[in-house]
TrEMBL record:
GO terms for biological process: negative regulation of cell differentiation; regulation of transcription by RNA polymerase II. One of its GO terms (molecular function) is RNA polymerase II cis-regulatory region sequence-specific DNA binding. This is C2H2-type domain-containing protein. It is found in: Nucleus. Its main location: nucleus. The keyword Ion transport does not apply. Keywords: DNA-binding, Metal-binding, Nucleus, Repeat, Transcription, Transcription regulation, Zinc, Zinc-finger. PROSITE patterns: ZINC_FINGER_C2H2_1, ZINC_FINGER_C2H2_2. The lineage of its organism: Eukaryota, Metazoa, Ecdysozoa, Arthropoda, Crustacea. Coiled coil: none annotated.
């Protein structure tokens, strides 16, 4: 009787690119297509390509409306078992994956892996146009629309187009005027959950986002990102008319009215028009004669905060504006501009 032949467990198939091992040659072949970006299997309905046959079969259920796996809690249907398994965690609220750095818990391993890149500051995905790096592939894909200017998502109501689906969904709330999120403190309603969460920090005074340069705190990430451009002097928004750069999109929109001479904000008292809302608000104090800003030194009142700041320099004798020619100091920028004409003569 011949002894039983024991399988060689070391007889694995290794990828020559990343050295990852596979039990069978079939799995190795499928894996190599990731490196080659080869997708030989095409959907006959939408012409989408796939690297392996099993992915195509799962995808075909989208067109056939075949949903084999149903959630027993909410009756939502899924085309593959793994999607159902991932979904069930929503109901169980189980978060078995914990970050070793900050101890934050996650329901999925993939979410934990993405999160750990915050601590490692790893950004493996690079834009081929501007060489900017990103921690996630999805962030890079979104960013690429800046260069391509592609806007494939169109609003069915006003025909406005967007580069991202999430931006279109946010925009749609303008037409529906639906605001399902209500603040329990002031009863103000919000169309989007993220705006609601940001608003709640007004009441709690929570400012979880900190600038790493000057340590200033902000209530939301978007405010921090805008602030960081002060340090980096980044001005990604450029005027197509005069090529002037701006750090925020709203500043560019406001500036464009200089060229178009558009003044959409009108005073209800004297019908005077203004190019930006802040100028209208400042102007309204002329009619109301309201002066809410008071000097703590002499108790003089001012209608605008900027006027109070300029006035306070009289008491502090601060002169922050310096002439680059003769180094003379001035309390106000307008005085410096007037003075510069002396040197230009």
């Amino acid at each position: 009787m011949q002894p039983m032949k024991v399988p060689n467990i070391n007889n694995t198939h290794e990828c020559s690119v990343c050295l990852k091992n596979f039990v069978t040659k079939k799995y190795l072949v499928q894996h190599v297509r990731l490196h080659l970006q080869e997708k030989p299997y095409q959907c006959s309905e939408c012409l989408k390509d796939f690297s392996c046959k099993s992915s195509l079969i799962r995808h075909m259920r989208v067109h056939s409306s075949e949903n084999l796996y149903q959630c027993s809690e909410c009756l939502k249907n899924f085309t593959c078992k793994s999607s159902l398994t991932s979904h069930m965690i929503v109901h169980s609220q189980e978060k078995p994956y914990q970050c070793s750095e900050c101890l934050k818990n996650f329901s999925r391993k993939s979410h934990l892996i993405r999160h750990t890149k915050i601590h490692s500051q790893e950004k493996p995905y690079q834009c081929s146009e501007c060489l900017k790096n990103f921690s996630r592939k999805s962030f890079l894909i979104r960013h690429m629309t800046v260069h391509s200017q592609e806007k494939p998502y169109q609003c069915s109501e006003c025909i406005k187009s967007f580069s991202q689906k999430s931006t279109l969904m946010q925009h749609m709330t303008i037409h529906s005027q639906e605001k399902p999120y209500q603040c329990s403190e002031c009863l103000k309603n919000f169309a989007l959950k993220k705006y609601f969460i940001s608003h709640m920090r007004v009441h709690s005074l929570e400012k979880p986002c900190q600038c790493s340069v000057c340590l200033k705190d902000f209530s939301c990430k978007s405010s921090l990102m805008k602030h960081i451009r002060i340090h980096s002097q980044e001005k990604p928004y450029q005027c197509s008319e005069c090529l002037k750069g701006f750090s925020q999109k709203s500043y560019l929109s406001q500036h464009m009215r200089v060229h178009s001479q558009e003044k959409p904000f009108q005073c209800s008292e004297c019908l005077k028009d203004f190019s930006c809302k802040s100028h209208l608000i400042q102007h309204m104090t002329v009619h109301s004669q309201e002066k809410p800003y008071q000097c703590s030194e002499c108790l003089k009142n001012f209608s605008l905060k900027g006027n109070l700041i300029r006035h306070l320099r009289i008491h502090s004798q601060e002169k922050p504006f310096k002439c680059s020619e003769c180094l003379k100091d001035f309390a106000q920028k307008s005085h410096l501009i007037q003075h510069m004409s002396v040197h230009s003569v």
